[in-house]
Amino acid sequence: MENKVYQIYQLLFESFGEQYWWPGESRFEIMVGAVLTQNTNWQNVEKAINNLKKAGVLSPEAIYKISPEQLAELIRPAGYFNVKTKRLKNLINCIFLDYGGSLGNLANLSDYELRSRLLEIKGIGMETADSIMLYAFERAVFVVDTYTARVLIRHNLIDEDCDYDQLKELLESSLAPDVKLFNEFHALFVEVGKRFCRPKPKCDSCPLNVIPKADFDYD
DNA sequence: GACCAGGCACATC
DNA sequence: GATGTGCATGGT
After folding, report:
1. pLDDT in tens, A77-126
2. Strand B-contacting residues in A 150-179, CB cut-off 7 angstroms
């Protein structure tokens, strides 16, 4: 098999089907979710987003105006709530002070400009920036996360001390730059990761078992 | 009770 | 430049 990366996509799609990501109703909700889900279970993020919705503050203007204390209380279920309060405020301040509070103005930026601008915001790292790029602005960038790394490393497709850019390069160079494909593939990595590729993996019925695995000791 | 989650910035060596 | 640490809730 020539393209193992694409083979992985096919195996995962056959097993799990379409994932219907990102689970959010608006561009802004996706951006907020991208920050809240940092190192955090999506179930907890949903509670926080529901709190924001119930309080009627899931908009750039409302989050711009709300006090840090109130915001922290609303997003508490997502964990790291003090850190994430600052990160959300940083993101919203950028949108307001530099782009007049309009996401449409951000949408006019080129891929390179948008990613650079997002990465300047304290609290927005590469994965969060790429999640926003792909899922909120429909740009064909691959979102790498811990599961992506784990799966590719365990199947010997990349060195175990690779960095984010190397993983991203492997994926983007192995695939056509297709927003829909990147959307599904990242979501499928998360799905297979949650089920089978934890730090201590349980690979018994994993659909990727047909791909050779590296030998690891997991203690 | 231990483990872990759809990271990131910062301190220290 | 590499490695370590704090941040925090909630499900399994």
Report:
1. 999 999 999 999 999 999 999 999 999 999 999 999 999 999 999 999 99
2. none
Q: What is the pLDDT of residues A146-193, one digit of tens each?
A: 999 999 999 999 999 999 999 999 999 999 999 999 999 999 999 999
What is the distance in angstroms between the CA of the first residue and the CA of the last residue of chain A? 32
Between CA A189 and C1' C11 the distance (Å) reads: 20
In chain A, count of helices (H) and strands (E)?
Answer: 13, 0
Distance A2 CA to C5 C1' (A): 42
Find tokens 């279970």 and name the residue: A41
Residue A215: what residue type? D
Element (H, E) at A182: helix A179-196
